[in-house]
Amino acid sequence: SKGDYPHYMLKEIHEQSTALRQTLSMALTDERIDESCLGDNAANILAGIEAVQICACGTSYHAGLVGRHLIETLAKRPCWVEHASEFRYRDPVVPANTLFVVLSQSGETADTLAALRYARTAGYAASLAICNVASSSLVRESDLQFLTQAGPEIGVASTKAFTTQLLGLDILALLLARHNGMDAITEAAITKHSLKKACFAVESVLSLDEQIRDIAQQLVDKQHTLFLGRGVMYPIALEGALKLKEISYIHADAYPGGELKHGPLALVDEDMPVIATAPGDKLFAKIQANLQEVEARGGQLFVFTDRPECFTASERCQVITMPHVDDILAPLVYTIPLQLLAYHVSVIRGNNVDQPRNLAKSVTVE
Ligand code: F6R
Predict the structure, then answer these.
(1) Residue 159: phi, psi to the nearest 5?
(2) How far does residue 269's CA lie from ligand 1's centre (Å)?
């Protein structure tokens, strides 16, 4: 049931800190990630892995894009990510000792399942499903499994499944890192100071709700929006744009900030809201410069940042102050306000938030 919430989506947005806590506690034994959270044979399999190929669809694909950054940064292993619907029709060249990873809330997405079945015959070292449904086809047909503990997700727009997938990918990246030279002290510090803080960090940004509703009010009559992010935040811009388009029906595009001047800057004028995620990470100065270009063209900026002092707030540049979080947690934490933004725009426009037109919760046909 929806309890006191008007929509499942809002309930599920609010359930994220609990979902993250449950997902992490399932993976920990004595405060350390226990390899067996991926299955009994996980230690043997992961020890031989040198590269990762991720396949997924939609929101789960965006989680995969974040996963690439985590796996390359923490585990120092190459990682590729592809839409499952495209992967299955390529003739991919399979590098030696590559783990094939599928991400899925439902575990029944036809394209993702077809990609897994194809991969199992194509020479990948092993397969892993990061999935929210224990009894699903993906879980049954893969060698390893990580079960996100998000609980049932009813709203068609995926929220808590996505953030728990991100946590699952953090865990996978740390386990691969353990087999590739990361020392136990570093790993313990990341577990303690990042992963164990995820649920609090996610909880704390829910208090931005009123401010976000005010932004939503400014977006409801727009025809187009542009989401920007850099590095690991680019997939979060993609996810923010997907959430907005699927439940508000406002066209939303997402770009890495550095691509602006290669085309999309031509779209920017006073009718083009630009929503940016700008955490104070190693690319902060880069996104800041990109946003100055937007401002100079008269665009309407909404900036989510933990460095509000670096922006001059005005009617054309509205700044939403985010908490400081570890780089590893930024994708998780910046997702929440973008989910709330899409939610409020959809509600104000009078749409069916939980059942957007033309979409199904589980896409079991190609
Ligand atoms: C968007 C959304 C979809 C799904 C996609 C894959 O909010 O929910 O894009 O993410 O259909 O579904 P799963 O994760 O069940 O494989």
Answers:
(1) -130, -75
(2) 32
**Ligand 1 proximity of 363 Cβ (cutoff 6 Å):** yes
Catalytically active residues, by annotation? 361
- What is the per-residue pLDDT for 162? 98
Predicted complex: ipTM over 0.90? yes
pTM score, whole prediction: 0.98
Q: Is 63's C-beta closer than 6 angstroms to any atom of ligand 1? A: no
State pLDDT tens for residues 70-104.
999 999 999 999 999 999 899 899 999 999 999 99
- Ligand 1 within 6 A of CB of 136: no
Q: How far is the CA of 180 from the centre of ligand 1 (A)?
A: 32
CA–centroid distance, 284 to ligand 1, in Å, is 30
User: Do 302 and 276 form a contact (C-beta atoms < 8 A)?
Assistant: yes
Q: What confidence tens digit (pLDDT) does each residue in 300-330 have?
A: 999 999 999 999 999 999 999 999 999 999 9
Burial of 253 (0-12, 13-18, 19+ CB in 10 A): middle
Dihedral of CA 186/191/195/201: which sign? negative
